[in-house]
Amino acid sequence: MERTTKVKDEVKFIYIAIICVFLVVLGHFILMKNVAYFAWAEATAAAIPFLLIGLGVAAVRRAVNIDKKNTPAE
Questions:
Q1: Are the C-beta atoms of residues 70 and 45 closer than 8 Å to each other?
Q2: Which pTM does this prediction carry?
C-alpha cells in the first residue's frame, strides 16, 4: 500500500495532541482547592473545553484537506 500523507503533516497532529493533553492537565490544576475560587481560574476552566473542541474541529478539517490533496484523482 502506498503512503498518501507526508510525515511532516502527521507530526503536526502530534503537536496538536500534546497541546490538548496540556490543556486537560492545566484544567485539573486550575480546579485545585487553592486556585479554584479566583475569577481568572473560573474563566480559564470554562474556556478549556471550548478550546479543546475548537482544536479537534480544526484538526479534523486539516486532516480532510490533507487527505483530499494527497488522494489521486480517479
A1: no
A2: 0.78
